[in-house]
Amino acid sequence: MTIRISIDCMGGDHGPAVTVAAAVSFVKRTEDVQMILVGQENIIRSELKKLKFDHHSRFPFISIVHASEVVTMEDPLEVALRRKKDSSMRVAINQIKDEQADVCVSAGNTGALMAISRYVLKTLPNVDRPAICSILPNQKNKPTYMLDLGANVDCEPRHLQQFAIMAAALFSAVEGTAMPTVGLLNVGEEDIKGNDVVKKTAQLLRDEHAKGVINFYGNVEGNDIFAGTTDIVVCDGFVGNVTLKAAEGLGRFVKTVLNAEFKRNFITMLGALIARSALKAVGSRLNPSNYNGGSLLGLRGLVIKSHGGADAYSFEWAIQRAYDAAKNGVLEHIASAMNELVAQPVSESVAGAIDVSSETPLGETGTS
Amino acid sequence: MTIRISIDCMGGDHGPAVTVAAAVSFVKRTEDVQMILVGQENIIRSELKKLKFDHHSRFPFISIVHASEVVTMEDPLEVALRRKKDSSMRVAINQIKDEQADVCVSAGNTGALMAISRYVLKTLPNVDRPAICSILPNQKNKPTYMLDLGANVDCEPRHLQQFAIMAAALFSAVEGTAMPTVGLLNVGEEDIKGNDVVKKTAQLLRDEHAKGVINFYGNVEGNDIFAGTTDIVVCDGFVGNVTLKAAEGLGRFVKTVLNAEFKRNFITMLGALIARSALKAVGSRLNPSNYNGGSLLGLRGLVIKSHGGADAYSFEWAIQRAYDAAKNGVLEHIASAMNELVAQPVSESVAGAIDVSSETPLGETGTS
């Protein structure tokens, strides 16, 4: 099965210089892929020429779709959505709607990408709001899937509940784990900890656990993200965004300090030189580039968001993420998980504000 | 001026073995300090003996106040607050109320420490809720003061406004910067970003800035914490707690990976050995122990919270923090800053979100 990936070539801080190079590199090393490069045709063609790809044996696996406009990082949502109807971002997403592509990758403006994706593709049945799910490395040398990372700054319990179910479907499709563990990000492990939204969400997730829909671990704390306590960490987009960016900031800080100290004098430089394989391994294990590519979950189509500042190496990881998602039928998994949520209608107790009382099958978890 | 510090010797994961050792070490190296060790007298005495401090020339600068009970990490708030009236934590805080101590340090249960401090000391005029403010290292090699770190999981704009003013007073008192910059933690820099609470808070802080009360920088993002973009970062206790713990978790993760890679083979071990001064410098610059000691702000007395798992080195940093706070008249600075807030009533434009009713008794806003 050939995976067709549409690339918003004009998005991101570096545009085609990065996106086209990454697409070419990916298509060279991947058999069953067809790339649709969307953007200003002459620029894309000249990038391909620069890369000497126009005579490559894999060249036929790339096609170009022209789009005359570009959504910039500064464009307000209305402009991106209503005025720039021929933007590379919009046209790339249209490829999915028109069934020309299985998945789309963009490094453009997150807000615009979410808004256009939502407008063009619509949300899946039973999804109130799409969310952005990214992968972080953890101490167990496994991935931690975390969402939402910024699409929803205010969440109600049922949104977080939906995020949990979608992320579980994503994780099991991509990682092959039948029932991945789900943790709810909180300020403590105990049930009494946290604000109102989190406490109510925990109750909803306990209900889903009881029904066998998800494998709810319970509350997790900030340190559990990198400890790998659970496969999935659910939080609202405000907390998720701040935490992710704080982690990136701390990572940069550590790197700066390490570099500065190793360059302090001849001896330390020598040590670093001798130990360079170790330092390289550390760098590669913690390199955020290897975790580039957030999935927009809850849409009727697969869209992957790359970091805006991604280089070609990093953007290629986002393409890999897109390829894996399409290959593993992530969309179908999520749609079916959300359908089951419909089939098992939200009990009265859960609908409003939770009052897990008598009729909930798993009454006893409701207490504590 | 001698600073009198009361120490809750029984608090924390390690109790007197850590707290007494840290107090002794501190008193040995600090001239103008008087330590009040609070806890089970026989245990404290035996620790002092173990440390061979009972014949030391600085021994007279330590006194012991017996307390028969201990607040455990598992104690519910009611137990800590209502039942254990002779706990080392309570008695240590009482020392401030009774004007026997200028500042108190405890590594005990955060919730209990906040509740007891609030009950015994009361909040300062015009403070609705106390907050916990900690120091983090940043890339500029300066401290970032961040609050709230867990005392208030739900905040209204006026609470965050108060946190900002208190932190600015703390920062200028301890660091000697007249008008430290204040950043509001958000998911983006633009004014339109964020949830309702953050947007309303930004307006309040802009008003305070216009009045010359604080130096409001604007919104900051997660990465700005470690970049050192502003001196102070304000957020609610949920976001602050999660972010801080995530940073700790990432720090541990990086350390584990570094250690593992350097120990991988003889060559890398040799490199690490040669570069050990660099690694040590990195470790010391990023060592969370050096940043131990969160200030409980907004009380009519100075209370410093140490990490529960602190070792003696780390606990001594919390004592240092306490000493510095008292020495620099932090309490007076904060009280006077909050008094000015009364003197300059909140403008109509923001009154909706606000209602800083001066008559609100400092009672019922539970932190849970």
Automatic annotation (TrEMBL), chains A, B:
One of its GO terms (molecular function) is phosphate:acyl-[acyl carrier protein] acyltransferase activity. It catalyses: a fatty acyl-[ACP] + phosphate = an acyl phosphate + holo-[ACP]. InterPro entries: FA_synthesis, Phospholipid_synth_PlsX-like. Transmembrane segments: none annotated. Keywords: Cytoplasm, Lipid biosynthesis, Lipid metabolism, Phospholipid biosynthesis, Phospholipid metabolism, Transferase. It is found in: Cytoplasm. PANTHER family: FATTY ACID/PHOSPHOLIPID SYNTHESIS PROTEIN PLSX, PHOSPHATE ACYLTRANSFERASE. This is Phosphate acyltransferase. The lineage of its organism: Bacteria, Pseudomonadati, Pseudomonadota, Betaproteobacteria, Burkholderiales. The gene is plsX.
